[in-house]
Amino acid sequence: MERGYWxxxxxxxxxxxxxxxxxxxxVVAQGxxxxxxxxxxxxxxxxxxxxxxxxxxxxxxxxxxxxxKKVVPEGLQLFDSVQExxxxxxxxxxxxxxxxxxxxxxxxGFIWTIAESAKEFGIEDIDMIKELTGTLARSIYCVHxxxxxxxxxxNIGKCAGCERMLFVRDHFSRRLGAYMGLMVDAESPGQLPxxxxxxx
Amino acid sequence: xxxxxxxxxxxxxxTYCNSPREIKRFPFPFAEDRYMYSVNIEPHGxxxxxxxxxxxxxxxxxxxxxxxxKEITLEQDPGRYESLSHMMDAQWDFxxxxxxxxxxxxxxxxxxxxxxxxxxxxxxxxGIKDTFTFGDAxxxxxxxxxxxxxxxxxxxxxxxxxxxxxxxxxxxVTTQADWSLAFNVGMSWKExxxxxxxxxxLGVMDRALxxxxxxxxxxxxxxxxxxxxxxxxxxxxxxxxxxWGSDRNTVNADNVGDRVHLRVELQSLFRLPRxxxxxxxxxxxxxxxxxxATYPRWAKRLHRVLKDLHPDLIEYxxxxxxxxxxxxxxxxxxxxxxxxLGTQPE
Lengths: 200, 346
Known about the structure:
The structure holds 2 protein chains of 2 kinds. By secondary structure, chain A is α/β, with parallel strands linked by helices. Chain A has helices at 33-43, 65-71, 82-92, 108-119; strands at 24-30, 50-55, 76-78, 100-106, 128-132, 138-142, 148-152, 156-158, 165-173, 178-183. In chain A, the strands form 2 sheets. A 5-stranded parallel beta sheet of chain A has the order 3-2-1-4-5, sandwiched between helices. Chain B is an alpha+beta fold. Chain B contains 14 helices and 10 strands. In chain B, the strands form 2 sheets. In chain B, strands 1-8-9-10-6-7-2 form a 7-stranded antiparallel beta sheet. A 3-stranded antiparallel beta sheet of chain B has the order 3-4-5, covered by helices on one side. In chain B, 40% of the residues are buried. The chains are: A alpha/beta, B alpha+beta. Chain A binds chain B through residues 2, 4-10, 126, 141, 143-144, 146, 164, 169-176, 180, 182-183, 186-189, and chain B through 79, 163, 180, 182-187, 190-195, 197, 200-201, 238-239, 241-242, 245-246, 248-249, 312, 321.
């Protein structure tokens, strides 16, 4: 990539930091995101009410559940899967009030899955603090068949919908939670560039 | 003046071509021998009689064929029309703007009769006549924006203004130069311009946004943008890229004048009264290099612009494969004479 070239649609992820003026805190994490949760609890144990939702992930060797149980002072809920977590999240969000802050840590796919659920309750992603952990794997939206393929770690990935080989364009849609994928050999069918892992 | 509408195609056998009258009014975008992005925005006031700038929405000899092509594209991919749920006021703003201006500017082809909120719209070239209640979407067969999007040439994006930026929250996009509405819908100004090279450094996008946030009702603006397309194909979307991508390999010295087209977008922006949204119109004009060369001044100018075009722009505009062939062909027309500033054909 040319130096100084910056794709403005690509989200900027930061480190989780407590928002001290919040009236309550909702921390949501998956897999290696557990480490980010442990880190903010080393910063401080906030005075306001805390809810922490955590699910393990297959892409993280470490399951932080048992450590979180020792560190998180209140409101920790553990799940076996992100699906179960989302069900609970959708039950919790209607009971929350203005002033609550949302913190999300995990893979990019996880972050935008949570953002999608939060949006249904009027929480914009700009108001969420997001930390990317563990993997750079991308979700790819196939612009041809509109299917989304998850966990792509290479510059070119196969669409789970139409099986075309997609070039992963560095252009991100927050609404879809995915990068744009374009048929890589549309100009010259069958000619594929070398496939390399660049999002480990 | 009464337009004769041509029967022609923008796909498969590509019978599209321009009459001498249409060539002469083509919005040639290059006033100088060099090109780089700039905030080339100007008032979209009433332009010279017969020019593409004469009216708010330009209708030309390709009107009927383009509307038919839109229908085909939309049927193949309904995702070319999208509207987020909060955009209904802007949809009606679009209906009002398009119907009023078409009926006012082309009374021989379109008419609008208002009886309170009961409106009767007639589109003679397309054989449409409907009475509906303005503001009540249930009285039309489809979303109001889609209804009129199908009846005007070009693409339309409705931009919602909030948080000091613009969001592309609705669109009717069938004649686009390689951008995806289905992917971009809901994006903010900075996000959807993400992939355009060089503009961040130039500060172009920030300044253009600042300008547009202050766009006033009744003072629309416009700019021209351009690229090159192989064959007179309107639907050069990323969605249909597998259908047209390989066309870029077909250009050679014998067919370049016929196959390669300059694609100019007349982009217009109107503030809308109810929603405070902005209507962003992208009207696409296609002209083959052979047609351009009927005016030697244009051929010379285009040769110089393309010869020295920044490599990033050649790549971004998808011209890498055929750029040398085009420059070589155009060189035949360029005697090196100094050209005065201006886009005129002669």
